[in-house]
Structure formats: structure tokens, C-alpha cells
What does this fold into?
Amino acid sequence: MTSTLHTITDLAGPAGRLEALLNTGSHDAKYSVLLCHPHPLGGGTMHNKVVYHAMKAFQSLGLPILRFNFRGTGLSEGSHDHGRGEQDDVHAALDWLDHNLHLPILFAGFSFGSYVGLRVVCSDARVKGAVALALPVHAAGRDYAYEFLAQCVIPKLFISGTRDQFGPRDKVEAAVAAAHPLAELVWIDDADHFFAGKLVEVQEAIRAWVQTRFLC
It folds into this structure.
């Protein structure tokens, strides 16, 4: 699948310019993809290994993918806002995709990126489906609540590892069970929060779900 990488210079949110990259897709792509990275205070950026492998999974299906750094991360302007202002960054990225590619959007996020992104995309009609990688429940002293998923009507795929230290199996299963239907949960056996040694399985789960749900 031929794809090129472009540096995006005109993506800006309320805190200023956001560093971003676009992997182009096929000329006849049916969807675009927004991909969000893990917690910046833990070193998370759009170049994170899990984010990169998720990008490759979508790219293999011919879809264009936008990755960006949240405010205060990398070359993005502004400062970290503990998941509040970062939701505005997601809004800005969705607006950029809509304005420039004119395609319905799929969302994917890893850890903190899944939490922040889901809070935005579940109420945005332009987004048709969401993938949450390693949904966090408690990490580095921070708790994450998902009561909003009960009203999230878009198809949702949750991919977690059975040894995820920040998303215990019973807590993740409870969050998914309380979500609005059209929620699927895939467990990657013996995988930790970062899917070490298991990223091929993550890619396979993403591809199978997108192909079944959106590209048939």
C-alpha cells in the first residue's frame, strides 16, 4: 500500500499550534483516522510504539491517519492540562480532518489518548467508530471514569492485555459492560499495558474489526 508522510503545519487548537503528521491513504479511502497518544507526563507522544503500530494497521487498509502531539508535548504549543484542554485539541484535530479530507472519521487512542479522545468523539457525529487501546482505569495516581460510555452510540472496540497493570481485567470488563451496545472487547493474552511483544496481535484485531464493521 503506497503512502506518504506529510508534516502538518496548519493544525491549531486554543493553546496554539499542534505538531502533527498525516500518513496519506488510498485515493478512494472511505474513512480517515484520528490517532491519539498516551499520557505526556509518562513520556507519551505521537511517536509512541503502540501508536505507530496502530497507525500501520490502519495504513494497511488504505486509510489516511492524522497523529498529533497534545498541547505542551513535543513541538506543540501550550502546556499540559490534565485531560481537560486536551479535549479541545481533539476537537481541533477532528475539524482539521473534516475540513481537509472530507471523509467520515474513525478514532483510535492509546491509554490516556483513548480516555481523552472517547470523551470527545462519542458526541461528534462525524466520528463513526472508535478503538480504545489499553483503556486506563488507574495509573500513576490518576483515576479514570467511563460513565459517559453509556451514551456512546458509535461502534467501539476495546483492546486490552490480560496483564495490563493500569487496566485490571475486572475493571475494564465492567466499563465495557456498562457502555452503550456495539461495544466489543478483545483481550490480548499475556500482554501488559504497552502490549510488549504483542503488537502484531493488536494490529490484527484492529484490521479485523475495521474490515468487518466499515469496509465490507
In short: The chain has one domain: 5-214. The chain has five helices and twelve strands.
